[in-house]
Specification:
Strand content: 15-25%
Mean pLDDT: 91
Order of helices and strands: HEEEEHHHHEEEEEEEEEE
Bound molecules: fe (ii) ion
Number of helices: 5
CATH class: Mainly Beta
Largest sheet: 6 strands, antiparallel
Number of strands: 14
Distance between the termini: 43 Å
CATH topology: Jelly Rolls
């Protein structure tokens, strides 16, 4: 049974367990933090960026975003960026992105890499983020762009998840951080993304009332010794049932920053999963 409230006796016994199902398979992992319920309010604004979309109820969609040429250019670009980081850190070189774990074969090496891939910016990429913003704006029928007035520069995260590892962030909502409340999340598969590794999300969870959500404050959730900026969620008004929509190459997952997502456990035994994520802001 999933842990759904602080009154649940099991929750009191094991306050640091996050239990969820992903496509009906149950997972439990250790999530450290100071947990509490929120106020009686729903944070998602139906008149905001997703006012006109047909997928407002579910909170996400899969969009055809990049052409095959653009997809190949993106993969080449990311290989170049990663190999540059590996060279600078004296960690060898990569031939195929999905075989990253064969080169970066220890947690220590992986930490060195992700300390840099978590904070890329548009200047690191050759892809046209303005054109991507135009395509997403068209889908939303509202104007969004990479410039976020609350940030000096929007970060673009290359997420790397080694096979059968705990390279995951907690279930979370980016929208808890004010800087991302008025944005739309864009998640692009890059390598090793399939139904066993794609980003899990909980459809409809952007409508959850905060008093039913059990979560940590910002910069408090810890998994495997890593602290995350976003508050980690371990309970909602219903058991935590996530699905993996699994967008194909060239497609992107678009979702509201108030949709609960994360815990992207990579169940592949021999493929590293890489994905790109950023947020486009209302203009
Ligand atoms: Fe996120």
């Amino acid at each position: 049974m999933a842990i759904t409230s602080m009154n649940d006796p099991e929750y009191q016994q094991k306050p640091n367990n996050c239990r969820l199902t992903i496509d009906n398979r149950e997972f439990i992992f250790d999530l450290q933090g100071k947990f509490s319920h929120g106020n009686d309010e729903v944070l998602f604004d139906p008149d905001g960026l997703m006012e006109h979309v047909s997928w407002q109820k579910e909170g996400f969609t899969i969009l055809d975003l990049l052409s095959p040429t653009e997809t190949n250019r993106l993969i080449t670009n990311l290989s170049k960026i990663l190999n540059q980081i590996l060279t600078e850190e004296n960690l060898g070189s990569l031939n195929a992105l999905e075989k990253y774990h064969e080169v970066i074969d220890s947690d220590e090496k992986h930490q060195k890499v992700i300390s840099r891939t978590r904070f890329l910016t548009s200047r690191d990429f050759e892809i046209d983020l303005n054109e991507i913003s135009r395509r997403v704006s068209h889908e939303l029928d509202k104007e969004v762009g990479i410039d976020n007035p609350l940030l000096e520069e929007e970060i673009i995260i290359l997420r790397i998840s080694r096979p059968e590892s705990m390279d995951i962030n907690p279930l979370h909502r980016d929208g808890y951080l004010d800087i991302w409340a008025n944005t739309i999340n864009v998640w692009i598969p890059v390598a090793g993304c399939n139904k066993w590794s794609s980003l899990p999300l909980i459809p409809g969870s952007h409508w959850w009332n905060e008093q039913d959500v059990v979560r940590t404050p910002p910069r408090n959730a810890v998994i495997n010794g890593n602290t995350y900026h976003v508050p980690g969620i371990i309970g909602g008004p219903e058991p935590l049932h996530a699905i993996r929509p699994d967008p194909a190459a060239g497609q992107a997952l678009l979702f509201t920053p108030f949709l609960v997502h994360g815990a992207a456990i990579n169940q592949n035994s021999d493929l590293t999963r890489m994905s790109l994520e950023f947020r486009l802001c209302a203009q």
